[in-house]
Amino acid sequence: MQPNDEVYHLFHLCESSIQFIQSLYKHMLFRERLAENKELCGASAILQLVQNTLKLPEHDDPLLASVVDRLKSKVLSIVSPIMCRHYLHK
């Protein structure tokens, strides 16, 4: 396996994991529990996932660039409503 192939594979695994979290987020109960969890704005796993994903650098490789953009978009779609809800209920 070439180094780039390994990177593509890892990015696709990350994308699959984030896709799974997105599918859970579609269920109201999961979304409500997540929004009520006080650790969300601290050091929670989901917040760390979002922060680390948003820190991913841009790439010259068009395939990697598109995967990184999709990852960032997906994590933002998960966390944005939760964060808005948290700050509105403070």
Report what the structure shows.
The protein is mainly α. It has one domain. Helix content is 77%, strand content 0%. It contains 4 helices and no strands. The chain is elongated, with a radius of gyration of 15 Å. It starts with a helix and ends with a helix. The C terminus is likely disordered. This is Nodulin homeobox protein. One of its GO terms (biological process) is flower development. It comes from Helianthus annuus. InterPro entries: NDX (IPR039325), Ndx_N (IPR057287). It holds the Pfam family Nodulin_N.
What does the secondary structure layout of this molecule look like, with pairings?
Blueprint: H1 3-25, H2 28-36, H3 45-54, H4 62-88
Helix pairs in contact: 1-4, 2-4, 3-4
Mean pLDDT: 75
**Principal-axis shape:** elongated
**Ends: how far apart?**
50 Å
Beta content: under 5%
What is the count of helical runs?
A: 4
Instruction: Evaluate the radius of gyration.
Output: 15 Å
- What is the ordering of alpha helices and beta strands? HHHH
Secondary-structure class: mainly alpha
Instruction: Point out poorly predicted stretches.
Output: 86-90
Helix proportion range: over 70%
Largest sheet: none
**Number of extended strands:** 0
Number of domains: 1
Features:
mainly alpha, 90 residues, 4 helices
Compact overview of the structure:
The protein is an all-alpha fold and 90 residues long.
